[in-house]
Amino acid sequence: MKRLFTSLLLAIGIATPALADYTFVVPQKAGQGTTVWAEIIAKELEPFLGEKINIKMLPGARDIPGFNKWHNEMRDEDTYIMVSHGGNGVSFLQEEVDYDYREYDSIGMMNLNIIAGKRIGDDMSKPRFPAGSGMVPEAFAIALMLCGPDKSVDEYITCFKENVTWVKGMKTAERRLAFKRGELTGTRENPATYKKHVEPDENAELWFHHGLLQPDGSHIDDTNYPAGYQVEQIFEERWGVAPSGEFYDAYKLVKSFRDGLQKALWVNKGNPNKDKLVAALEAMSKDPKAIAALIKKNGDYDWYIGDAGNAQRDKLMTFVTLDALSDLVEFNTKALGLKSVFKPELGLD
């Protein structure tokens, strides 16, 4: 009888509400870090959302095309959520991209960190480090720690080029193997891959990390690691003063955009499903089982959900100044050989 009643309802156009599948749009291919993270979040979020979440992968050069495609063609679809990472944040600052964080609402983001390891016993006065656009904050950090305070951008560039071997052209697997063999003396990973590839290496140890961005714009120590390894702490211990100045401001800008936006979920402003998605993520973030799964993979890091995620984005935009953008591009092009673009429009709002 129940089956007959349902059939009658459908026949006269009175249908029960259908579940609407959601789609996470990821700018990477299968097996890469953000794709794996998105799969974990989708699995843990589905029970609280009450609907299925599909993963749509749109890989491309430096993970830009997928984000551009969502921005241009998909963001008006109410069930399409963009999953971005820190490299997208760096590209936003220094490359021609279509996407613009200011046009979206945050569903939530994890406030993460990047961890640098080194070969045990190496004093890192002449580091050999893998190059790449994703390593820009590490290059700034290395320049600061090696070269000290009170220098112009040109002086940091000269010091970096004299002391650092910046090894270009390595794929991820190649740089990991080169570090394990000792051909590279330094490397960097996100918290999950640091646990997997660096911590088990008996010839590796912690070198530095970038700290965790706070709502007031400061950075604090990452308690997932021993105290004293944040770049600012290492700098002050060696040079006797805290880092400051225009070059440090450029470092703070690029590291904060990379790490503060390292894993984030976005919808277009005005999306009618925003509140439902935010509520589901809030519930997931309070569930011990779900959080245990995330901590096992990434470490223990805070979520900024809904309005808190928007506030994180807005705080990051206050770091954008014409001087910081100019110094970022100058160091990238002259020290690292990157084709960075000066984008003054970002610092004019």
Structure write-up:
The protein is α/β, with parallel strands linked by helices and 349 residues long. It folds into 2 domains: 21-111 and 262-318, D-Maltodextrin-Binding Protein, domain 2 (3-Layer(aba) Sandwich), CATH 3.40.190.150; 115-256 and 323-343, D-Maltodextrin-Binding Protein, domain 2 (3-Layer(aba) Sandwich), CATH 3.40.190. 46% of the residues lie in helices and 16% in strands. The chain is built from 14 helices and 13 strands. The strands form 4 sheets. Strands 2-1-3-12-4-13 form a 6-stranded mixed beta sheet, sandwiched between helices. The protein has a 3-stranded antiparallel beta sheet with strand order 8-5-9. The longest helix has 17 residues, at 33-49. The model is unreliable at 1-18 (pLDDT under 50).
Quick overview of this protein structure:
With 349 residues, this protein is an alpha/beta fold. Helix content is 46%, strand content 16%.
- How is the quaternary structure best described? single chain
Which CATH class of the largest domain? Alpha Beta
Q: What is the mean pLDDT?
A: 91
Q: How do the strands of the widest beta sheet line up side by side? A: 2-1-3-12-4-13
Provide the CATH topology of the largest domain. D-Maltodextrin-Binding Protein, domain 2
Order of helices and strands: HEHEHEHEEEHHEHEHEEEHHEHHEHH
Q: How large is the radius of gyration?
A: 22 Å
Measured by DSSP, the beta-strand proportion falls in 15-25%
What's the number of domains? 2
Count of DSSP-assigned helices: 14
CATH architecture of the largest domain: 3-Layer(aba) Sandwich
Specify the biggest β-sheet: 6 strands, mixed
Q: What's the end-to-end separation, in Å?
A: 63 Å
Question: Would you identify the regions where 5 or more consecutive residues have pLDDT less than 50?
Answer: 1-18
